[in-house]
Specification:
This protein is mainly alpha-helical. The protein is built from 17 helices and no strands. It has a single domain, classed as Orthogonal Bundle (ADP-ribosylglycohydrolase fold), CATH 1.10.4080.10. The longest helix has 17 residues, at 143-159.
Length: 308
């Protein structure tokens, strides 16, 4: 729910760029329509539920079927290109993904934007990084793309374990993300996030220094920064994420996936929840992920703790 609302409201922020105007448009709207960010998160949740964990071919098939049914969701060029290669040449999804961008694979934020269901399902698993890598490589094969996805997954997983009634553990949380990163491109940005939070840098300055583009190392860090600046307010985290330029819908999806994991659904305005498109399906999938607690893939713990 958090990630979907961040996505849908972030999409509105492309046209309504101030908080007052954006709040007014949210209140005026009958439905808050999400983009490919949430469509792919739904596909990831559906695949996990259907196979009881992560299976790359099934995940790719699910993504492809959902894209064919709703191609108008705002997909970037990457996933449709992967789907076409799979259909034309009989490649696996990971093989097709590695063909993109001159054989380097995509380092975009398209794998991170959808990660919340997997991060919660595997949030107690020692295999979380590998599960993220396997899910990302269906469409995003570049090591930086995978690493940015994994850091966001770690943020969702760790916040699911922390009670929001307690003071937020800034130091251990930020250090954990720095240590989790495996590429210098992502790790250096997470170090900068910690510095900007310590300096209380204004959000616009932080966004400019961290980046706001579709490249994961230039958007995911600012999404984390937006959450760390406002860990106790879903609304302020959302507005910080989407009102400082760049890839607004995906920034919202990433920041609010973490915020939703930490604060829980009770912290999200009910009026917003009531307006999100396909609400019943989102709640149904979340409930099924919660029910599937216990042992997951290869004996990994899969106890999701909250609704994201």
């Amino acid at each position: 729910m958090g990630s979907a609302l961040g996505d849908a409201i972030g999409e509105l922020a492309f046209r309504y760029s101030g908080e007052a105007r954006l709040r007014s448009e949210i209140a005026r709207s009958d439905i808050l329509t999400y983009t490919d960010d949430t469509a792919m998160a739904i596909g990831l949740a559906e695949s996990i539920i259907q196979v009881g964990g992560l299976e790359e071919q099934h995940l790719g098939d699910t993504f492809r079927a959902n894209f064919r049914r709703e191609p108008w969701r705002g997909y970037g060029a990457g996933p449709p290109s992967v789907f076409s290669l799979v259909e034309r040449e009989g490649l696996s999804y990971s093989e097709a993904a590695r063909r993109l961008f001159g054989g380097q694979g995509s380092l975009g934020n398209g794998a991170a934007m959808r990660i919340a269901p997997l991060a919660l399902f595997f949030h107690r698993s020692s295999d979380l990084y590998d599960m993220v890598r396997r899910s990302a490589c269906v469409t995003h094969a570049h090591p930086v793309g995978v690493d940015g996805d994994a850091v966001l997954a770690r943020a969702v997983a760790e916040t699911a374990k922390v009670a929001p009634q307690e003071p937020f553990p800034f130091q251990s949380f930020s250090q954990g993300l720095i240590d989790w990163a495996r590429t210098p491109e992502v790790q250096n940005k997470m170090i900068l996030v910690r510095t900007l939070i310590a300096e209380a840098a204004p959000p616009l300055e932080a966004a400019k220094r961290l980046g706001r583009s579709v490249a994961v190392q230039e958007s995911m860090p600012f999404a984390i920064c937006a959450f760390m600046r406002y860990p106790n307010s879903f609304e302020q985290c959302l507005f910080c994420g989407v009102l400082n330029g760049g890839d607004r819908d995906t920034l919202g999806a990433m920041a609010c996936g973490v915020s939703g994991s930490y604060l829980g659904i009770e912290a999200i305005p009910q009026a917003w929840q009531d307006k999100i498109e396909n609400r019943a399906r989102l709640v149904e999938l979340a409930g099924k992920l919660v029910e599937m607690s216990g042992e997951g893939v290869a004996g990994s713990a899969t106890r999701p703790a909250t609704v994201s």
